[in-house]
Amino acid sequence: MSDLKREQRKNEHVEIAMAQQDQPVSDFDKIRFVHHSIPSIDVEDVDLATHFGDFKLSSPLYINAMTGGSEWTKQINEKLARVARETGLAMAVGSTHAALRNPDMAPSFQVVREVNPDGVIFSNVGADVPVDKAVESVRMLDAQALQLHVNAPQELVMPEGNRTFSTWIENVKAIVETVDVPVIIKEVGFGMSKETLKQLYEVGVRYVDVSGRGGTNFVDIENERRDLKDMSYLSNWGQSTVESLLESTGYQNSMNILASGGVRTPLDVVKSLALGARAVGMSRPFLNQVEEHGVDGAIEYVNAFHQHMKKIMTMLDARTVDALSHADKVLSPDLLTWIEQRDLKL
Ligand SMILES: Cc1cc2nc3c(=O)[nH]c(=O)nc-3n(C[C@H](O)[C@H](O)[C@H](O)COP(=O)(O)O)c2cc1C
C-alpha cells in the first residue's frame, strides 16, 4: 500500500469517526450508584490524582490514541497536545506505524512532544510490529509508555487489513521484555475477556486498556470503507467497557487496568474508576472538542469535566480515586447475568 493511501486511510478514519453517533443508552447506564444523603466531605476535599505502576497522574482522565500520519492529523495532534499541556492530562498518539515506515511522517507525531515537553505521552503501534520498531516508536516521542493495540475485528473488516494473528502473543512477549517503558496492551473498542487478560499476564504484561464497545466503532468505520458495506452485521461484536471491567476483576491486583471505549460523561469516568480502572481514556469526544470548539473550548470542557467528577465523588463520599472502590452500586439484571455466566467474582 502506498504512503498516500495510508494517509488517506488515516483521514478517512477521523472523518468517519467524527460522524459517528453514540447510542442513547450505554452499558454505563446499567450500573447505578446508591445515593446517601449526607456526605462527610466537601467538594474541595476531593483529589483526582491517580497512581498505578510507574505512573502518578494529576487526573485519571487521558486523551486516548487517535491521530498522526497525515497533514490534517498533525494539526489535530498539535491541538490535542496543547489541551493535554494546559490540563495536565496524559495523552496517547495514534499508531506511529506510518512514521516507522516513512520518517517524513514522524513530525505529525513528534509535534505532541514539542508542544508538551514535560507531559506524559504514550506512543502507539500494533501488536505485530517488529521489536526494534516498537523501541523506535518510544524513542520517536521520548514516550513514558507504549500502547500496543490489538484490533483483530478492525483488521478483518478492513478491506486491506491484516489476516494473520497467530504471531501476536509471542511478539507481545518479546516487546514487553525489550522495551524499557511500561507497555500497555490496548483494545480499540471491542473490550477484553478474563481469558485475554490471563494470556497477557502470562507473557509479562502488567498494563492493559480494555477499550470496550459502546463508543467509536471500528467495525462500522471499516465497513463504511468497504465497497459492498457488507459486514455491518458485526457491529455489536465485543464486550462493552463495563463488561470488560467486570471481566478484569480477578486481575485488578496483579495488573494495572485502564478503561476506555464509549466513556462520555464525568459519571461514566467515575463508574469506570469504581469498577476498578486506574485511569480512563476518551478519544472521539476530544477529537470533536478540538475540531468543533478549538483548543480553548476543549480546555474548558476538560476543566468542567474535572469539576463535575469532584461533585460526583463528593456525593459518593470519596475523597480519592482509591476510595471509589467502596462506593455502593447496584448492577442491572443484564450485568448480573454476564457475571453469572462468565463465572466472575465481584
Ligand atoms: C479517529 C480515531 C483513530 C483511532 N486510531 C487509533 C490508533 O491508531 N491506535 C489505537 O490504539 N486506537 C485508535 N483508536 C481507538 C481509540 O483509542 C479508542 O480505543 C476507541 O476510539 C474507543 O474510545 P472512544 O469511544 O472514546 O472513541 C482511534 C479512534 C479514533 C476515533
TrEMBL record:
InterPro entries named in the record: Aldolase_TIM, FMN-dep_DH, IPdP_isomerase
Record EC number: 5.3.3.2
Gene Ontology MF annotations: FMN binding; isopentenyl-diphosphate delta-isomerase activity; magnesium ion binding; NADPH binding; oxidoreductase activity
Domain spans labelled FMN-dependent dehydrogenase: 166-326
Transmembrane stretches, start-end: none
Chief subcellular location: cytoplasm
Entry's localization field: Cytoplasm
Reaction equations catalysed: isopentenyl diphosphate = dimethylallyl diphosphate
KW Lipid metabolism (keyword) present: no
Listed GO biological process terms: isoprenoid biosynthetic process
One matching Pfam family: FMN_dh
Binding positions (Mg(2+)): E155
GO cellular component: cytoplasm
Annotated FMN binding sites: A65, M66, T67, S95, N124, K186, S211, T216, G262, V263, R264, S283, R284
CDD domains found in the cross-reference section: IDI-2_FMN
Cofactor(s) recorded in Swiss-Prot or TrEMBL: Mg(2+); FMN; NADPH
Keywords per UniProt: Cytoplasm, Flavoprotein, FMN, Isomerase, Isoprene biosynthesis, Magnesium, Metal-binding, NADP
NADP keyword on record: yes
Enzyme class: isomerase
Subunit description: Homooctamer. Dimer of tetramers.
Job of this protein: Involved in the biosynthesis of isoprenoids. Catalyzes the 1,3-allylic rearrangement of the homoallylic substrate isopentenyl (IPP) to its allylic isomer, dimethylallyl diphosphate (DMAPP).
Family named by the database record: Belongs to the IPP isomerase type 2 family.
Protein name: Isopentenyl-diphosphate delta-isomerase
Lineage: Bacteria, Bacillati, Bacillota, Bacilli, Bacillales
Name of the coding gene: fni
